[in-house]
Amino acid sequence: MLTILRELSKVRDERTGTFDLDSFKIVYIAPMKALVQEMVGNFSSRLKEKFGVIVNELTGDNQLTKQQIAETQIIVTTPEKWDVITRKSTDTSYTNLVRLII
């Protein structure tokens, strides 16, 4: 969590205190779908209200549209799904925004 907060501090406007949520993505890779769901709940409850960070699950069972990916700051996924996204993706605009992989 501290690493995520550190990344958030990098996109914070010192004058207004707001965050540029469109300038980064954080990818959290969990070994199992059950852990992915648990981490999505954990991160969402901690980061949504205070910081406005949107956390979504990306697994074989739960697909995201391009619009949903664009609106998401933290993507929690499995290693297999992240491998598919990075190898076969023709649109690299989202992967270019990744600032942190956990």
In words, what does this structure look like?
The chain contains four helices and four strands; from the N terminus they run αβαβαβαβ. It has 102 residues and is an alpha/beta fold. A four-stranded parallel β-sheet has the order 2-3-1-4. β2, α3 and β3 (74-77) form a beta-alpha-beta unit. The termini are close together.
- Overall number of strands: 4
Which shape, going by the Cα principal axes? globular
As an assembly, this protein is single chain
Radius of gyration: 13 Å
The largest sheet, given as strand count, sense and whether it forms a barrel, is:
4 strands, parallel
Encode the helix/strand succession as letters: HEHEHEHE
Round the mean pLDDT to the nearest integer and report it: 93
How far is the N terminus from the C terminus?
A: 10 Å
Compact description:
This protein has helices spanning 2-10, 33-51, 66-71, 79-88; strands at 25-29, 55-58, 74-77, 98-101. It is α/β, with parallel strands linked by helices and 102 residues long.
How do the strands and helices of this protein lay out in sequence?
Layout: H1 2-10, E1 25-29, H2 33-51, E2 55-58, H3 66-71, E3 74-77, H4 79-88, E4 98-101
Parallel strand pairs: 1-3, 1-4, 2-3
Primary descriptors:
alpha/beta, 43% helix
